[in-house]
Amino acid sequence: MVITRRNDRRLGVSGTDWVKNGDRWTITAINPNGSLHARHLRSGLHITLPAAYVVEYVELGYASTVHAAQGSTADVVHGILTGHEDRQLLYTILTRGRAQNHLHLITEVADAEEEFLPGIHEQLTAVDTLTLTELDGRTLMTVLVEHPTKEGRDMHIESGMEDGMQDAMNLLEGVAAELR
C-alpha cells in the first residue's frame, strides 16, 4: 500500500476525480521506468502514477500518523505511544483496527547517535534504502525491476551473491508481497 502526498488534477482517475493528498493505493504493477500501476483502496479505480510523481509524492502507506489515519481502518493497528497522547488521540488509535488494536509505549529515549544507521545522517525512505543498497554492484531496486518474479531473483542471487544478500532479498520479497 502507498499513499499519495500531493493533489494533482492532471492525474485523473475518472471524469470527476483525480489523485489527491492522502489517497491510499494498492500497487498492481511496477514499470521499469519507475511508474506505478495502482488501484485506489476505496473507489477501486485504476491509475498509472508517473515516475516523477512517485519519486516526489508517493510514500509507503502501511504506517501513518494518527491524524492522517483518522477516518481510515485496517485489519490490525499498532499504535506507538510516547506517553504524551491525550484521550482523543488514544481513541482514534484504538478505533482504527477491525480485528486488533495494539499499543506500544516507548519507555526509553534513544541517544542521538542511535537514531540513524552508521554513516547515514538522515532518515531514509523505503525507495532510498532500495536505491542505496547494492547487490553485486547494482542497487536492490534495479534487481527488483529486472527480475519481477521471485524465481528470477533467486536465480540471480544464487549465481554469485553473498548469503547475507540472500537474506536481504528474502526480507524484501516479503515486503514486496505485501505491496502487491
Task: Describe the protein.
The protein is α+β, with helices and mostly antiparallel strands and 180 residues long. The protein folds into 3 domains: 2-60, SH3 Domains (SH3 type barrels), CATH 2.30.30; 66-105, no CATH class; 122-179, no CATH class. The chain is 33% helix and 28% strand. The chain has helices at 51-57, 66-69, 87-94, 126-132, 140-146, 150-158, 163-179; strands spanning 2-4, 8-12, 18-19, 24-30, 36-40, 46-49, 58-60, 74-81, 97-105, 134-135, 138-139. A 5-stranded antiparallel beta sheet has the order 6-5-4-1-7. The chain has a two-stranded antiparallel ribbon with strand order 2-3. The model is unreliable at 156-164 (pLDDT under 50).
Short note summarizing the structure:
The protein is of the alpha+beta class. 33% of the residues lie in helices and 28% in strands.
Overview features:
180 residues, alpha+beta, SH3 type barrels, 28% strand, globular
* Class from helix and strand fractions: alpha+beta
Summarize the main sheet: 5 strands, antiparallel
Name of the CATH class of the largest domain:
Mainly Beta
User: How much β-strand is present in the residues?
Assistant: 25-35%
Distance between the termini: 8 Å
Indicate the overall shape. globular
Q: On the 0-100 scale, what is the average pLDDT?
A: 75
Q: For the CA atoms, what is the radius of gyration?
A: 19 Å
State the CATH architecture of the largest domain.
Roll
